[in-house]
Design goal:
The protein has helices at 136-143, 145-148, 159-169, 177-193, 201-204, 211-222; strands at residues 5-9, 12-16, 23-27, 35-36, 49-54, 57-62, 68-69, 75-76, 83-84, 88-95, 101-108. The chain is an alpha+beta fold. A hairpin with a 5-residue loop joins strand 7 and strand 8 (75-76). Helix 1 (136-143) packs across helix 3 and helix 3 (159-169) packs across helix 4 (177-193). The protein starts with a strand and ends in a 15-residue tail after the last helix.
Length: 237
């Protein structure tokens, strides 16, 4: 039935059809909630949140001490207005002790949706990979080397740092700050035209800082267009 809520945590879940005023409670206290989340973690509230059906759709409300992390890193705090759940898949994360995050997977069926079914034998769908030219690839690898090295809280290198390392790698190639900037901006604009969000000044807003390059590198890595093995391109430097 359209509007059916499927919710699944590590300890189990449920499915519930739509109905004005229906509510589903989730949290640590198994006897008093419908879905148990973080049963062994005292940082998770006994009643962490509630799904409520009203106005023809499902909403999620935080009842716990810590915020719930929603899609897109949106944090939902206690006392805030409930968030509507879109049809399809939505992951929710309840923060716990010692860096733990407890996942609650939610799926709301739309008019044309069906309950997700196992696809054990299906061919794995590859990610969208952006092809980088022989000139672009080393520039992006140098710019994002701290990300590829898995450094904590990485930041992109500056145009000047990137140009200096490229000049050491390929002497006589004429790499300058401006040439690096133009090369990176061309890749960023190409990905933006292809639908990658958050790669323009208008989307990010001022002050921009390193945000555009940070998002570009993360998008390239998430799509496997850049991978740690690409560091071999700059090993000599």
């Amino acid at each position: 039935m359209p509007g059916t809520l499927y919710a699944l945590a590590l300890a189990g879940g449920l499915a519930l059809g739509p109905g004005e005023g229906r509510a589903v409670l989730f949290g640590r206290n198994r006897p008093d909630v419908h879905i148990c989340v973080g049963e062994d973690d005292a940082r998770v509230s006994r009643h962490q949140g509630t799904f409520t059906h009203r106005g023809g759709r499902w909403w999620v409300c935080n009842e716990g001490r810590l915020p719930i992390r929603c899609a897109g890193s949106r944090l939902l705090f206690r006392g805030e207005e409930p968030l509507p759940l879109a049809t399809g898949y939505t992951p929710l994360f309840a923060g716990g002790s010692r860096g733990r995050e407890h996942l609650l997977e939610v799926f709301v069926t739309g008019p044309d949706d069906e309950r997700p079914v196992p696809r054990h034998g299906d061919v794995t769908r590859p990610p969208r990979v952006w092809q980088l030219s022989e000139q672009e690839k080393p520039v992006l690898v140098v710019l994002g080397r701290r990300y590829l090295l898995h450094e904590p809280r990485p930041q992109p290198l500056t145009w000047k740092q990137t140009a200096a390392l490229l000049a050491e790698l390929r002497p006589g190639a004429g790499w300058t700050d401006k040439r690096v900037e133009h090369t990176v901006n061309a890749v960023r604009q190409r990905l933006s035209r292809d639908g990658v969000a958050g790669l323009t000044r208008e989307e990010v807003g001022e002050p921009v800082g390193n945000a555009l390059n940070d998002r570009l590198i993360r998008a390239l890595m998430a799509s496997t267009s850049l991978v740690p093995m690409d560091l071999t391109l700059i090993d000599a430097a």
